[in-house]
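> example.struct
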């Protein structure tokens, strides 16, 4: 039986969360914990119901199980990413790195293996929503306070006020996490940013195993695929073996400079 809305919204909710899981026990625990944290929680038990609820309720973040009836989590994520940059956290009973990479490749913001600690999930939700300024189900970027500036990165124009990237006037669609990664790397051009630091700043937790750092590698690869003319021979985001990543220094090759 559909479980559209299992919550009584608080007077001033932090955000609306869509929890998608076919296990009723998991949904009950998450609804209870997340409501206590102040969120409005809506639930779906299969992929088709999840898409219908998403379009009706426009949640601020989606917690999405991978193994679902009707449409699996990967298919749901693929459809959501075709129209929206809403933050997505995958849950999965399988902790295989290939599955984690597959989910991140589709544009998910984080991946938490089952069994998981509800407290850890709450922390990751809070980190992501804080990073995106609560978040939005719209594919349009959120407005930020002016004054952050605009950067030219090679032939790219990076508008940190609107969180937009354009090339020759054409907008390049980035998720919130991808843009945050771009901002972090180009905040101090030329500085080597360790993978562990990237993980902690963007995802809010330290690496506990090699698979955690793989999250960073996947997102760098996604960003290169969207921004680099030849992702196999990157010019904007450089790999520093055994350590992390660095952007080109301002003035080295004219890759990054202030404009406007």
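> example.seq
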């Amino acid at each position: 039986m559909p479980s559209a809305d299992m919550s009584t919204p608080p007077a001033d909710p932090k955000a609306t969360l869509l929890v998608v899981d076919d296990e009723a026990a998991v949904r009950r625990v998450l609804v209870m914990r997340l409501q206590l944290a102040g969120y409005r929680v809506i639930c779906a038990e299969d992929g088709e119901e999840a898409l219908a609820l998403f379009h009706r309720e426009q949640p601020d973040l989606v917690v999405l199980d991978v193994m679902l009836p009707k449409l699996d989590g990967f298919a749901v994520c693929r459809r959501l990413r075709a129209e929206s940059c809403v933050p997505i956290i995958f849950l999965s009973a399988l902790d295989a790195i290939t599955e984690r990479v597959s989910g991140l490749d589709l544009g998910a913001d984080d991946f938490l293996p089952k069994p998981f600690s509800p407290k850890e999930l709450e922390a990751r939700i809070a980190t992501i929503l804080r990073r995106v300024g609560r978040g939005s189900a719209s594919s349009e970027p959120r407005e930020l306070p002016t004054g952050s500036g605009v950067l030219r990165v090679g032939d790219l124009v990076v508008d940190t006020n609107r969180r937009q990237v354009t090339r020759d006037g054409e907008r390049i669609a980035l998720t919130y996490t991808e843009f945050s990664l771009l901002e972090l790397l180009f905040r101090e051009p030329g500085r080597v940013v360790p993978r562990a630091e990237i993980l902690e700043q963007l995802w809010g937790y330290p690496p506990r195993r090699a698979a955690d750092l793989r999250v960073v590698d996947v997102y760098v690869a996604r960003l290169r695929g969207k921004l680099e003319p030849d992702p196999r021979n990157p010019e904007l985001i450089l790999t520093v073996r055994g350590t992390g990543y660095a952007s080109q220094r301002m003035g080295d090759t004219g890759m990054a400079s202030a404009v406007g």
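> remarks
Residues 150-259 form a domain with the Arc Repressor Mutant, subunit A fold (CATH 1.10.10.10).
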